[in-house]
Amino acid sequence: EPEVTQTPSHQVTQMGQEVILRCVPISNHLYFYWYRQILGQKVEFLVSFYNNEISEKSEIFDDQFSVERPDGSNFTLKIRSTKLEDSAMYFCATRGDDSYEQYFGPGTRLTVT
Amino acid sequence: GIQVEQSPPDLILQEGANSTLRCNFSDSVNNLQWFHQNPWGQLINLFYIPSGTKQNGRLSATTVATERYSLLYISSSQTTDSGVYFCAVEPYDYKLSFGAGTTVTVRA
């Protein structure tokens, strides 16, 4: 069964550093999402991406965040200058045209020190 | 935005017991999914169920879209069923809104 993959599984970074989280979507999927879960809290929507542009973003997704699909396969989330409060699990999700079901990757645990 | 309420917040079961988790939502939805978050933090997709009933092994789910609720049934619970169960809905805006989850602990 096709899967969404994410790298790295765990990243530790210092405050103020830039991080790039990577996702490889299921091959025929066209809709891409990033979600975030701070430890002990519920999963929150960050951004959706379709046809090479952002469809919608939450108030969390400020100027420090950006997304792109640099090579037509990977889908990335960049945080320009990390803050302590960016520590969380970040999930990539994708879906195809034929269903509203979203398929989630295993997540990247980001720890900002 | 849409409200998603899950109950109960915590559930402690003896191995072999059956249980029902509930998800209420405040608006019509395109999509409803149930997830199990394992101890490593991964979200395991259990059901895509915007309406109707589905079964997968010891788990089954029912969504009554007209009454805006969904139920997840766990039968003959095992210790491996422990974890947090999330309901997530999409109200025609192409993003999932998650509930706060039900933490299930199954004791041997």
Walk me through what this model shows.
The complex is a heterodimer of chains A (113) and B (108). Chain A is mainly beta. Chain A has strands at residues 5-7, 10-13, 19-24, 31-37, 44-50, 53-57, 65-68, 75-79, 88-95, 103-104, 108-112. In chain A, the strands form 2 sheets. In chain A, strands 2, 4, 5, 6, 9, 10 and 11 form a 7-stranded mixed sheet that branches. In chain A, strands 1-3-8-7 form a 4-stranded antiparallel sheet, with no helix packed on it. Chain A is globular, with a radius of gyration of 13 Å. The termini of chain A are far apart. Chain B is mostly beta strands and 108 residues long. In chain B, strands 2, 4, 5, 9, 10 and 11 form a 6-stranded mixed sheet that branches. Chain B has a 5-stranded antiparallel sheet with strand order 1-3-8-7-6, with no helix packed on it. The model of chain B has no long low-confidence stretch (mean pLDDT 95). The A-B interface holds A 31, 33, 35, 37, 42-45, 48, 55-56, 89, 91, 93, 99-104, 106-107, 109 and B 30-31, 33, 35, 40-43, 45, 48, 50, 86, 88, 90, 93-101.
Helix segment count of chain B? 0
Q: What share of the residues of chain A lie within helices?
A: under 10%
Low-confidence stretches of chain B: none
DSSP, total strands of chain A = 11
- Which pair has the most extensive contact? A-B, 23 and 23 residues
* Assembly context of the chains: heterodimer
Mean of residue pLDDT values of chain A: 94
Strand content of chain B: over 45%
Tally of helical runs of chain A: 0
Radius of gyration of chain B: 13 Å
- Helix content bin of chain B: under 10%
